[in-house]
């Protein structure tokens, strides 16, 4: 599946060729909110919708208002509008906002398709972009950035950073990789799987994940990892994993990890120190064992554990120490 931001922008661009449409962005929230700041949806003048800004009730209200004949066309040249839901407890309950939450939305009427095309093109080319909107006159500015930019609203300009898809490179094309690749695809990652072993790469079955057959360390370099990339070794074979991990650790990838038991993970670290001129400091970013502790046993459960840790890392969540597999199992051993 594609990154939801790109899906919304791309579909909105397609609609604007023949339809009036609105882009809705979560501007601010107070209390509990089902969707984060920056979440987007687009509504076409016939009621079609993509994306979401709440649990459903706010979407229904907006669709009801703007799918009426001529409702969007009447605001075709209107400046952006701020709409607030959930100011009163009664309204919060009616629109499904938990615990009296409040959500503030920005509505843009008929975003310029030329600028939408430019934005999606830059994102498809792997660029980080900043979209700035003046809410008083509707002026939109686009510029490239060198790092992901959080949403920022100063009362006049809304600045939203957009990035290309997150990417995942898996070393090994076994059963665990198939589960993990499938989960990553559903979470909006582009997935590449590397395995030079004929007995594995000939049976790879996840069509939307790209399969490459070169040596893993070469494929890591060809992958050209960036801060929106993660690299995970899953073969248990030092000839394939170790050199690939070495290259990955020298990259800006946000997550580098390898499967293995506590004993195997310790042996890998010592092997890389003894034979690959690494130190504890250079190996500090290597995650192994990987995943969060859920007492997973099957390949599917292990994939869930790994994917959860990848998403937490992507979202800058500091997981509690006891969620790590090593800490949890060390604690069990001590009891």
From TrEMBL:
Gene3D superfamilies: NAD(P)-binding Rossmann-like Domain. It comes from the Bacteria. Pfam families: XdhC_C (PF13478), XdhC_CoxI (PF02625). Residues 168-310 form the XdhC Rossmann domain. InterPro entries: MoCofactor_Util/Proc, XdhC_CoxI, XdhC_Rossmann_dom. Residues 15-68 form the XdhC- CoxI domain. PANTHER family: ALDEHYDE OXIDOREDUCTASE MOLYBDENUM COFACTOR ASSEMBLY PROTEIN (PTHR30388), MOLYBDENUM COFACTOR INSERTION CHAPERONE PAOD (PTHR30388:SF4). This is XdhC family protein.
